[in-house]
Amino acid sequence: MAKETANHKQNALNKGKTIPLKIKRLGINGEGVGFYKRTVVFVPGALPGEEITAQIEKVYPNRAEAKVKSIRKKSKERVVPPCPIYEQCGGCQLQHLSYEGQLKEKQDVVRQAFERYTKIKPENLPLKTTIGMEHPWEYRNKSQLQTAKDKEKVIAGLYGLNSHRIIDLDQCMVQHPETVRVTNAVKKILEDLNIPIYDEKKRTGIIRTIVVRTGFETEETQLVLVTAQQKIPRKELLVSEIKKRLPYITSIVQNVNDKKTSIIFGDKTLPLEGPETIGEKLGELSFDLSARAFFQLNPKQTVKLYDEAKKAAKLSGTEKVVDAYCGAGTIGLWLAPDAREVRGMDVIAESIRNAKENAKRHGFANTHYETGKAEEILPKWLKEGWQPDVIVVDPPRTGCDQAFLKTVGKIKPKRMVYVSCNPSTLAKDVHMLISEGFKVESLTPVDMFPHTAHVEVVCSLVRDK
């Protein structure tokens, strides 16, 4: 008995202990995953196939977290991260993995989710290869960087990995160069004019966040200054200096956020110069984007994502389509030219207004939008004699509402297209949809955010006759 206890102590994981570890796969946050005496160990920076010495940092009842102490056997896919602040920043998680390796591992993350949460046999999983980018850099059309003072210098960036210290980003390889150029110029202007910068601890100062969004197709750019109060000292001088140094900016607006919160935007937005919106195009569709409007961060891949959704919908021109959780109606409008009718719903009234405006602007007469929950509106339409052939859904990371999934089972559309930004919640929801009479026809991962751990998936489901 005493010998068993001694062995257990020797095998037990505790903080500071170094262990040999073979990395089996990547986790959903991009960390390496290995097993030590049946305990799962997560190691950021480690890659599948690598043999490492890991140092335990945290121990939980069912898992442990560690850091790489040394790599004994290196992955062939390991590369030197090109970004000089990659390890401090934390905005990207996979720059140390070749791009081909990233696409392969993202496909595997989807496979793992379906193995874990569904009963589909691995050999029957219709999983395609990940759709990547030809140039997987400079793809983000929007930056939101917190400001701070470092001695007399104004900095703007992201909170460093596992810290509350802002890492100044004067360059970023995944941002559109225009967003970087504008942010750097605005930092210098704020510094030159001595405009007070917000201090989160003391809750003093004015400028909290610099937000820049640029249109890939229109080349229009909007600058948003998020402030802790409405009054900005030397406001006219600030605006005229921005116009002088950045004459090509389309729109300058102020957003007021006086709350103690990590949420970027407040409720009040005020125009400072130019129109309140900028334009952007996705394929044949054009959009007016206000400061707080949601829009996909990677327009080039969004076209590929929506084209996959259209392919999965298999429209012939006769189908009635529902765009559930429709937001401003983007996916539904993408499908509208090939559908008989598109109907959408969303709980946010402002989104429904935007969807109606977008449909009208593009001349679609075959769309209809209502504010409310899908699980309440779908049965109402069914009672009125309107049954959809295809339901398309693009929910938040938390996945679909259970009541909605049960409603879909009762409505019995011929097919469903589920666009997901979270493979785990997708797999859980698909498990439920299978019990409601559906089967998975295809799964296509799409890399919307190269060099990060995120992966989107287009899942096509059909009624299992």
Automatic annotation (TrEMBL):
Keyword annotations from UniProtKB, A to Z: Methyltransferase, S-adenosyl-L-methionine, Transferase
GO molecular function: methyltransferase activity
Source taxon at top rank: Bacteria
Domain TRAM: 12-70
Family: Belongs to the class I-like SAM-binding methyltransferase superfamily. RNA M5U methyltransferase family.
Chain sites annotated for binding S-adenosyl-L-methionine: 296, 325, 346, 394
Protein name: 23S rRNA (Uracil(1939)-C(5))-methyltransferase RlmD
Enzyme Commission code(s) on record: 2.1.1.190
Swiss-Prot/TrEMBL GO biological process terms: methylation
Classification via InterPro entries: MeTrfase_TrmA_AS, MeTrfase_TrmA_CS, NA-bd_OB-fold, SAM-dependent_MTases_sf, TRAM_dom, U5_MeTrfase_fam
UniProt keyword annotation of Methyltransferase present: yes
Residues annotated as the enzyme's active site: 421
Organism whose genome encodes this protein: Fictibacillus terranigra
A Pfam family the protein falls into: TRAM
NCBIfam families associated with the record: rumA (TIGR00479)
